[in-house]
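Let's practice the habit of predicting before peeking. Look at the sequence and jot down your guess about where helices and strands might fall. Then scroll down.
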Amino acid sequence: MIALLTISYWQINAFVAFLLSAIFAGVLIPKILLIAFRRKLFDEPDERKIHHSTVPRLGGIAFEPVIIFCVFFLLMVDLLSGQDLLLNEFSKNVIEISSGICGLILLYLIGIADDLIGVKYRAKFAIQIVCGLLFVMAGLYVSDFHGLLFLHNVPAWFAIPLSVILIVFIINAMNLIDGIDGLASGLSGVALFYYGFFFFTIEQYAYSIIAFSTLGTVIPFFYYNVFGIAEKQKKIFMGDTGSLTIGIILCLLSIKLANSPVEDCTNCNPIAIGFAPLLVPCMDVVRVFLHRLKSGKSPFLPDQSHIHHKFLKVGMNQRAAMLTIISISVFCTLLVALGSKIINVNILYIFVIAAYTVGNCWLSKKIKEKNIEW
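Done guessing? Here is the structure:
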């Protein structure tokens, strides 16, 4: 009976975290739209961008305050009701979660500055490195590769700088994949549901609540981003504020899950399940980086060589391209996460990377057949 009551308690908290975040974000985003149009804070169209109308790019402003409010509101209700289960869960991970909140605030502020006045990429990189160092100080770094690249436990002098690079890489992957309506929010929504479910399964309830609370903020944004009509002043982009916020939260969740013991991960490979939902945006960043270097362009300057641009150039509309990429991500996530029970993690990653490369080569061939410059 006690076990059933405990399970019900955590199910209720996870659901309330999601529901509260969705409600508050759903209320806040229209207010942000109103302010953006009154103050003329738009993402203006140009030759590089896909949209043709003025659209506010401040949707991500809603993310951080809603997430933090909902998590601490649940903590307050938990204590006022005479419970301390939720407080105990967060207390067990207080150093790690504190580092995540510190990084979240830093990236939220730099994101707002970038969306309003523009920030050079060097400054953003510097802040992202600081966030990586905060994670490392809290002990959130990958020290066991669980057989990936045939490595297991590695020394701190190798694990720490590599983890900082990994954190910067993931943050930028989420930032750069935000190129068409619903793509970044759709991919992150899938990842957040995955992390929320997995953390709930392994009884890491604090991280599960963070994941579901973040998921709740993404759902209303997805609606306005995908189904909102620009001409009716109902459409909004997440901007760097949103993509950087989502990026740092996904770093927190992925590294924490990758550090979980094998026996807690239902015998799946922790390094596989930790980063499985991030494979598509991460592979796309690597491919774009190499493509720009090959073309003699700066790898840090924007262009139209991302996977979503390729789908558009072969004739897909934005929504079809978005759904296709999200479906690919779901397939890769399930394949790597579930396949790691029975297949070596190196074989899984080689297969996914090879399949992704073949798919990109096929798209490039189709683009050349259409004589489209990209």
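How did you do? Residues 269 and 318 are 35 Å apart (CA to CA).
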